[in-house]
């Protein structure tokens, strides 16, 4: 199926570049053809080992519970989030690793993924006051993007519920509802969830 959405022009134009191989892998992954996506990601890292393809191969390895392989791919790509520890249920180790990430590396492609993942881990560890603190921090960081209409307030509402304050959570959800444009259904889905 995926090959019907791909033509070989990028590969013909730039056979020595990594990006066309990575893009072809992405297309296969979008159609659930993970064995094929893996082949193309491997071809991409043959050209450039520190490219996102290595990170994608790391996630693929986690799904197959090949943790040593996943760790190698994550190290290759520079990806530092403790997804292996989280997948294994080693929440204390994940929290320590998240805490130890330098502040200059808290963002990935402009998004505060470290705080986001730390919020998830605090939830899984049932450390709800810490979850609330992190959700507040996440919201402050996401609010810096003027295009983000929700800016982490969904996480904040969730944290308030887990901390025994559903009234505050409903107040936040009502604020989100007022801020959402009815013409943006993908944002409404977040609120409805």
Summarize the structure.
The chain has 193 residues and is mainly alpha-helical. 67% of the residues lie in helices and 0% in strands.
Derived from helix and strand composition plus strand pairing, the structural class reads mainly alpha
Radius of gyration computed on alpha carbons: 20 Å
H/E topology pattern: HHHHHHHHHHHH
Largest sheet: none
- Count of alpha and pi helical runs: 12
Write down the overall geometry: globular
Distance N terminus to C terminus? 31 Å
Structure notes:
Helix content is 67%, strand content 0%. It has helices at residues 9-13, 19-30, 34-47, 52-63, 67-77, 83-88, 91-100, 113-124, 128-142, 153-162, 166-179, 185-192. The protein is mainly alpha-helical.
Question: What structural keywords apply?
Answer:
193 residues, mainly alpha, 12 helices, globular
Topology (elements, then pairings):
Layout: H1 9-13, H2 19-30, H3 34-47, H4 52-63, H5 67-77, H6 83-88, H7 91-100, H8 113-124, H9 128-142, H10 153-162, H11 166-179, H12 185-192
